[in-house]
Amino acid sequence: MHISTKCSVAIHCLLFVSEYGGEIKVTSELLSRSTGVNAVTIRNIMSALKKDDIISVKYGTGGSTLNCPPGEITLYRICKALEPDFLTKLIGVHAAPSSLCPIGRDIHTVLDHAYEKIRADLRKSLEAITLEQIILCYHGYKA
Predict the structure, then answer these.
(1) What's the predicted TM-score (pTM) here?
(2) pLDDT digits (tens, 9 = 90+) for 17-32
């Protein structure tokens, strides 16, 4: 089971933009230093968040801002913006079971049914957590 680290990096970036975007120009280079992730990767993450209208990015002079209140940005939305098919890729299924085998013939259908509940539960959990909650948590640890 796997959710890419890009989601954690994106949350880090969004938290940074929320906290400091009004005071300083938040650029990919600055976010790269903060996250420890290559600036090109940061630009790709920010581009995906921009495409989903979570943030605005000023090209040329740089700088990022949130496009909506943190309470409207869920972890599900962030993950989906970065990896649209992350839920279907969450649990891998072996690709080529034998069609000659009675179990092999039906295993994908059986597993898809079982794994769908896991996907639905994860989606519900990710939709219940907002950037606003993460910001409040950050402030609690910062105190």
Answers:
(1) 0.87
(2) 999 998 999 999 999 9
- Which one, of 12, 2, 90, 96, lies nearest residue 49 by Cα? 12
Cα separation, 52 vs 72, in Å, equals: 13
Crossing angle for the helix pair 39-51 and 28-35, to the nearest 10 degrees: 110
What six digits make up the tokens of 116?
């769908």
> Tokens 């090109």 belong to which residue?
40
Angle value at C-alpha 74, between 46 and 114, nearest 5 degrees? 110
Q: How far apart are CA 105 and CA 109, in angstroms?
A: 9
Question: How many whole angstroms separate alpha carbon 97 and alpha carbon 57?
Answer: 46
Residue 56: strand, helix, or coil: strand
Looking up tokens 């989601």 gives 7
